[in-house]
Amino acid sequence: MNFEEALAVFTGRHVEVLQPNQFIQGTLVSSSGGILAVDTVSTNYIPTTQRVNISTNSVALVRILPQ
Known about the structure:
This is DUF2642 domain-containing protein. This protein has one helix at residues 3-8, and strands at 14-19, 22-32, 35-40, 51-55, 61-64. It is mostly beta strands. Strand 2 (22-32) and strand 3 (35-40) form a beta hairpin. The longest helix has 6 residues, at 3-8. The mean pLDDT is 91.
């Protein structure tokens, strides 16, 4: 099992994704092909809700939040 397969189990859960230069919080939509898709929540950094595609190579940490 690789990183993407391990995260795919948590599709639909709230997550926090930490990259070296940013922090993204939202709902994990998918994890495949080297990309994490996250529907973000509105924050100071991202003023509207939108889908963000994140390269798994740039991910430092993914925290799965309790439901």
